[in-house]
Amino acid sequence: MQAALGESRAPASQQEVRLSFAPLVKRTSPAVVNIYTSKTVQDRGVNPLFNDPFFRRFFGNSFPGGSRERVQNSLGSGVIVAADGLIVTNYHVVDGADEIRVVLADRREFLAKVVALEEHNDLALLHVDTEGARLPALRFGNSDDLEVGDLVLAIGNPFGVGQTVTSGIISANARTSSKIGEGGVFIQTDAAINPGNSGGALVDIDGELVGVNTAIFSRSGGSHGIGFAIPANLVHRMVQTYQSGGKVVRPWVGGSGQVVNQEVAQALGLNRPQGVILASVHPRGPMAKAGLMRNDVILAVGNQAVDDPVALRYRFETASGDFVAVRYWRKGAERTVKVAIEAPIEDPPRNETVLNGNTPFSGLRVINVSPAVIADMGLAEVDDGVVVNGLRRDSIAGRVGFRPGDIIESVNGKSIGTVDDLNRANRSEPSRWQIILRRDGKRLRMDFRA
Fold this sequence. Notes:
By secondary structure, the chain is α+β, with helices and mostly antiparallel strands. It has helices spanning 14-17, 22-28, 53-59, 91-94, 232-243, 262-268, 286-289, 309-317, 371-377, 396-400, 419-427; strands at residues 32-43, 68-82, 86-89, 99-103, 109-118, 123-128, 151-156, 164-176, 185-189, 201-204, 209-216, 227-231, 255-259, 276-281, 297-301, 304-305, 323-330, 333-340, 353-354, 364-368, 386-391, 407-411, 414-415, 432-439, 442-449. It folds into 4 domains: 21-26 and 137-243, Thrombin, subunit H (Beta Barrel); 30-128, Thrombin, subunit H (Beta Barrel), CATH 2.40.10; 255-340, Roll (Pdz3 Domain); 353-449, PDZ domain (Pdz3 Domain, Roll).
């Protein structure tokens, strides 16, 4: 029986098995570029004493044999997504680069500049000045239409050997795991992805960009058949926002939740574990405005099922339009409501402050947590409080172990809800400091003598 037009099916004859990807590769590979970056770094491994802040305090960078500058080079891949020279790649490919050089498949070279970044999604947009020349660009496919078993090609520059194409299938779609990246959603494929492939293209058999290669699971540094790509729908949203002149902002979910397990499903009357049960709903957020409440179970956003908080946020990020339909479960019945797609609010104001003095906090840059800060910094399991936004170089705070992203919960038994609270604690003169903070979802305790 002949398959309907566009219908997926297995090869039906030996002739079909021997079909080649060559025409597809010829059409898509010119839009995949090699990216070479360089940055100047301080090499402090010459003398171990130079790594001690005490010695650097007196000798600075002139400490004999202590420091020297060197140029660090790295490579990656990118994808041309607009003929005027707009290129997408991974954030980690260009992070901190002093110079970015783009080499096309036809060996033309351009200097590129970064025009937009999304660190939390590991995405960067570059632009090259083509002086009016049009570059080959890939069309975006709908990554939500991918199914496990679909054929894909990974195109990039692994190990710097030059442009390479590997084939495979979709192993999983909308994969979420803290082991892959920080709160990300990924397409999993067994198409070989190796170092240098980062930022390259994952294309379907229609020649459309369905993902940007970003990571692998590996014990040796090479491909073991488990590679991951950022879904094209997430990339497309970033590109559209940049091209329209807007700022790339993560849509505000306005609530946080937990995975529904078997016990919770039975208690709520669900026929199986599914969805995300809302543990909190921001009173001024889009979910609250739409009438959603704590203990509601979000089953789907648009026509896509959600089974964990990361997937819930991702579906909001890739939703189109001003509203999205949310299907949820409440009191034994399914319901649907329209939730607005809007930017998170910055309330309370950040009140960015650098703390000083002879205290463990000296050199910390801190801000108040708000929905906007949570979105910007990718914070999880937090609704309010004070977050470390940076550290002054060679500061006491850096030496005692604070890190950007730490949430300071209490100091000497007193809860810290705002930057003003932390300022008051910093000005006190206790004999001991006991600090409770949250880092990567874990609560830590720090004790110091004054």
